[in-house]
Each structure stands twice: as structure tokens, then as C-alpha cells.
Amino acid sequence: MSILQADIDTIIEDNLNHTLFSWSKQKGIAPLCIESAKGVYLHTCDGRKVIDFSSGLMNVNIGHGHPRVTRAVVAQMEKVSYVTPACATEVRGQLGKKLAEICPGDLNKAFFTVCGATAIENAIKLARLYTGRHKVLTRYRSYHGATMGAMSAGGDPRRHKVDIHQGANFVHFEIPYQYRSSGENWVKECEEQLERIVAYEGPDNIAAILIEGESGSSGCLKLPPGYWKKLREICDRHGILLIADEVMSGFGRTGQWFGVDNHNVAPDLMAMAKGLTSGYLPLGCLMVSDKIAAKFDDEMLALGLTYSAHATSCAAALEVIKIYEDENLIENARAMGHYLETQIEVLKGKHPSIGDFRNTGLLGALELVKNRSSKVSMAPFNAKPEEMKVMSEVASKIKELGMYTFVRWGYIFIAPPLCITKKEIDEGLNIISEALKIADRAVD
Fold it and tell me: Cα separation of 177 and 179, whole Å?
């Protein structure tokens, strides 16, 4: 049932007048007013049905409104909602044990955090504590969170606003991506570049290499084949820890439990959040290898958060993991990812503005270009507002036609909930296809 327009106006006014919206100018925005959500759909306060083609912020992996999570959360709160992290609870131990079962290698110890950024912060801190080293190598065109340390580690241009305040000893390296790489030696060039940077910075100074399991908000840029194994070899050779950021790529998003599973590599530390609870409650986690954890058997672990191992959030996570298994959502992500790729090939024949589509499981992005031969982007990296004219019109059309998804620079992201069906994929692609007519008109 739709809400009266006067009440909708009040809801929006209260939001705009008394809350701040992330990554946005605060004037002139028009947020969707959401009353409810179910499966792959959002239901607005004025009665419209909106297909969610980016799973919120690539976190609502099981889909919206799953009743099993609600029941699990209520049952836990009826026993104990929260106790200090110094206490043991049944659900904390159960979740830690389950994560050890599904994580690669010997990642058997869980340090629970509040979100992805706090998982990354503690990964950086723990790597430095364990190795006694200070430098952390990370990738340009990456995103690791918005807290100061995580933002300093990331290569996302949003950090430029706080460059003067950023943390020290983060060294960034570039990975050319295949669509824009010239020649056939791009894989070798990537590996040689990293070897040089390790040598320049001094391997004995490097605590860790931090990299996303699969690239996300930077455009789903693919690492060269074998690159993860090369990272593992370099880290092993120099005593450097390998940290996987699986905040976005974890929990079935890439058609495997974790992005690194696509590369058959086990990191030393692994940060997770988002799909851990599918966004139903805030929770992050840092998975730690047995070797690293053993150092703190007789030494204080200098990590701590008031809401670490929050019992209610742990209950949500445990139930969400069971849903992945019971409903075969990871298998569905692989199957629907393959279907999506075939349908995008059809769209390429219709829309000359599609330059490239990169996808793993259900983590994908269309890259729009003004010319397929020159590959001039429809909006450049870190585009200014005036450079976003066409893409802003595309994004507005997508919203107008009843879709919520993430549009950034020249990218349209396609990362729907893992429960999506072929029919729902077709529905979403029809909307994108209609919006792409705007971009096609800007093609040379």
C-alpha cells in the first residue's frame, strides 16, 4: 500500500534536513523513499517497484527481506543482544567455526569488527604488529573503505580530499587492465612492475601487500591470469603478508565463496563484511591464519572494538551463511553470471556505446565509450561534473525506468542479488538497454 504524498514529503524532508548523505552534495539530491524490499526489488513509498541491480552497495547478496534472518535475529535478541567482547557466546563460536570451514588455507581465527573499513584497519595494524615492518603496498584504482587508514590504503580519488591527513607508509602500484593495455606482454609488464616496486621500497620494510579479491567499484578491472599466485610467491619469498580484501567480492559474489578462490590462493589475512550478513546488520571480520594467531598466544593482541563479536550481528551472519548453502546461491551466481554474459553480448550488437564488459559471477561493470576503436571513455577516470553529462543522463534514465544501480564515471555496474533469475536479469537489461540509447547518441 502506498503512503500519502504528504507523509512521503515529510519522510524525505526529515532525511534531508536532519541527516547527511554519503558521497554527495547535500542540496539538490532526490533520494528514493523506500518503504519495503523483497528479493531483488525495492518498493518505494509511492508504490513503485524498483529492481535492485547492484544489491544495495554490492552487499545484499541473499536478496532483500529474507524471513529466516529476521527470525534468527529475534531469537538471538531474546537470549542476549550484546555482551562485551571479553565474553564468550554460543553464536560467536559457531560463526567463527563456520568461517574457518569455508575460508581458504589455514584462515581459522576470526576477529570480528563493525564493517569492512574496520576489518581493513585491523588487518593493516595486525600485519605491522606481526612483522615489525611499516610499509603496505596497495593498488591504484582500488577501494578499501572510508576510515582514514583504509582510505589512505585505497587508490580511489575520493581520498584526494584528505590527502594531507592520510596515513603514512602506503605505497601504490598500478595494474594496467586488459581492455586498455597495448600489446600482448601486459601480464609480464604487471609482474615486472611489482617486482621493481618491492625492490625500490625494500622488501624488509614491507609488512603486507593488500589487494581486492576481485576488483569492484574501480570498474571490475581484472588482474592478469596468474597474478594472485605471483603475489603469493613474492610475499613468501620476502616474508611479506598477503592481505585479501574480500569485503565486496566475498560470499558468493564472484561465483565462489571468496574472490581468491577463483585463483586458488590462500592469503595470510582476509577482510570481509557486506555479504557476511548481506547488509541485514552491520558486521565485519578479519580472518587470521594460524601462524599469525599463534604469535599472540602469549602476547597481548592489541586490537579491540566495543562491538566486536556483537551477538545479534553474529546470529544474522550465521543464518545468512546457511542461506547461501541451503538455497544454492553461489551456484546460482555462477549460472546467472554466465547467462548475463551471453545477454550482454547481444546488447553489444545493439549499442555501440558498450566498449567492454567485465564480470566474475555477479560482479560486473559495463564500460561505455565514445568510440570503440579509440576507446575514448564516455566519462574519464575521476570525471568532473561537466564531464559526466552523458553518464548523468544515462543514470537518470535508469532511475526513471525503475532500476537502482551504481553508475560511476563511464561505468554501469551490474551486481544483482545472487537469488536473481533469468527473467529478472532480462528485466534489468531491458532497462539498461533503453538508457544506453542516450549514450549511443554520443558515440562518434
Answer: 6
